[in-house]
Specification:
Length: about 375
């Protein structure tokens, strides 16, 4: 978990330093104050493009130097950071203990999961959104999953470019690319299925409660050990389509409401939110049990939409995960039942500690 977070020219934060404690970290302030920006900064301390999936150039503060920086100290004296330079606003730099490294290496040190209002439609969005969500869950259990996925995507792009060229194709080079895709694709599929099976079992064994239990299945493409052959036979089809039409990038996470025996896509908006929340809670518990390292949870505007009894149940369940839980809201009142927490006020890009359990250094005014 994080013991210190520093933002420099990130979104609307010119400079902010937070010292969160373990357990709950509560950020309150008006809409547009910069609360979600803090969560986004934490999400960028893990592999991927963060909770908004925004271009890096959009993250630099307007009126700033052009780049941004995010640095954190982890419990255990680990220093990690990421950011960009003004001269290369779309090139992400990652450092761990001062050494420059690939973003995928962050998975070895920190696991971050999040829920945002934009994810409320996860079950009715295109399959790609659910794949990304599943890959985030898988990454928590298999830190090598991100590098496997990156290699698969890079190899697939190389194959697509080769197929798009005019004239005869280099069959030997295509075969080599397809063999690499098959190797990485099998590992991706196996890791996803392991996650789905372990999480599905944990959800099925939980008693009925305030958060709906989800049934999980991986649909679409299945690894049969013949992906290289499938790709070779589909070259003409893929060339005409301009993309690869078989492989783990065509899989989908199917979710059902176990107690209602109904597909998540057919559930009400409230039921879908409850399914998603229950899924993330169960995964946090699974990750802690499997790895001994609870994930950092980022929950944006979650408590405000729950009645008092469900809110209390949520806080109890979150506390039992052992995770550091970052939560946002417009008012402090919904978080009164949490008890001990690091509490911060956020206003116009300024972050100020509200209790002695957490300290914050306000931005400098040059």
């Amino acid at each position: 978990m994080l013991s210190r977070l520093v933002l420099t020219d990130f979104r609307n934060h010119a400079e902010a330093v937070l010292h969160p404690g373990c357990g709950f970290v509560v950020l309150t302030g008006d809409n547009g104050a910069g609360k979600t920006n803090v969560l986004e900064a934490v999400s960028l301390l893990a592999p991927g493009r963060g909770l908004r999936r925004a271009p890096l150039s959009d993250m630099a503060r307007q009126g700033g130097a052009g780049g941004f920086g995010i640095a954190a100290s982890l419990v255990g004296d680990i220093e990690i950071g990421t950011g960009t330079q003004p001269t290369a606003p779309e090139r992400r730099i990652v450092r761990i203990n001062g050494a420059t490294t690939a973003a995928t290496a962050l998975a070895e040190w920190l696991t971050v999961l999040w829920l945002t209002p934009a994810m409320d439609r996860l079950f009715v969005e295109p399959a790609g959104e659910r794949r990304r969500f599943l890959d985030r869950l898988t990454l928590a259990l298999r830190p090598d999953h991100a590098s496997r996925a990156n290699r698969y995507e890079a190899t697939m792009r190389a194959r697509n470019r080769l197929l798009a060229e005019d004239g005869p194709h280099d069959d030997a080079w295509l075969a080599a690319l397809e063999a690499q895709m098959a190797e990485h694709g099998a590992a991706i599929d196996a890791a996803r299925r392991e996650t789905v099976a372990a999480l599905g079992e944990r959800l099925a064994n939980q008693p009925a409660g305030p958060f709906a239990r989800a049934g999980l299945a991986l649909e679409g493409w299945t690894d049969t050990g013949a992906l290289a052959d499938e790709l070779a036979q589909g070259r003409r089809r893929d060339a005409a389509a301009g993309r690869t039409l078989t492989g783990p990038h065509r899989s989908d996470l199917a979710v059902t409401h176990l107690d209602k025996r109904q597909l998540a896509t057919l559930c009400s908006t409230g039921e879908q939110k409850a399914l998603l929340l229950g899924l993330v809670l169960a995964h946090a518990e699974l990750t802690a049990a499997r790895t001994g390292r609870p994930p950092v949870l980022l929950l944006d505007e979650v408590a405000a939409h729950l009645d008092p009894s469900r809110r209390a149940a949520l806080f109890d369940r979150l506390a039992s995960t052992g995770s550091q839980v970052w939560m946002t809201g417009t008012e402090p009142a919904p978080f009164a039942g949490i008890g001990q927490a690091s509490r911060f006020d956020v206003a116009d890009g300024r972050v100020t500690a509200r209790s002695s359990s957490a300290a914050s250094v306000p931005p400098r005014r040059d």
